[in-house]
Amino acid sequence: MDTNDFRRARSPQAKQQREAAILDAARALGAEHGIRQVTLTDIATAVGMHKSALLRYFETREEIFLRLTAADWQEWAPVLCTEIDRVDDGDAAGVATAFARTLAARGMFCDLLAQAPMNLERNVSVEAVRAFKLVTLTAVGAIVTAVRARLPELTEADGVDLMAAATSMAGTFWQIATPGPEVAALYRDDPRLAHAIVDVEPRLARILTAMLEGVIGQRAGRWPGR
User: Fold this and answer.
1) Are residues 202 and 101 in contact, defined by beta-carbon separation less than 8 angstroms?
2) Rg of the chain's alpha carbons, rounded to an integer?
3) Alpha-carbon distance 173 to 169, whole Å?
4) What's the pLDDT tens digit per position in 182-215?
5) C-alpha to C-alpha distance for 24 and 36, rounded to whole angstroms
């Protein structure tokens, strides 16, 4: 769309449509290039706006991507809860696999999870952060409830620890697994660097399984713990 075609939204409905178009453009650019590479100008150009016009809808690029992160939390949580509901009672590995599978399938979300605490929450208003945190709080609560229904030995705090570990590692592993083309070629060509090639899903599943089985073992008194 040419920027000359842009007309300022006049009605609430038109404003919502314009915001949705901005978010869709940012999502497409982020998925193609990575969140860090996308500028506010890139988003404005993709929508067919001047940058100054886009700033009427979002204050910063970080606010745009923080909104996308919140939307992805809202999409992921019910999907993960459904997967956990299918796991047998007491199956820690099954719960861990559900986390790993659903996160690894959402590369853009993993990228956002890594960027949110480092960048996206740091150049937005306090109210934008509050709105984002309330969305994540609701999602975490639903997921922890689903986990504890299958693994009743876990406390609420254990469930929150699991959420923190899963999302932070997913974000980190995705960054490691998606280097630039030249670095990716280096890893493939030099056998000494093979360890740097990360397959997100199995590694995340292994670590979360070990974490859950360890906590459950402590709760059952099979070995000393907290």
Assistant:
1) no
2) 20
3) 6
4) 887 888 888 888 777 788 999 999 999 999 999 9
5) 17
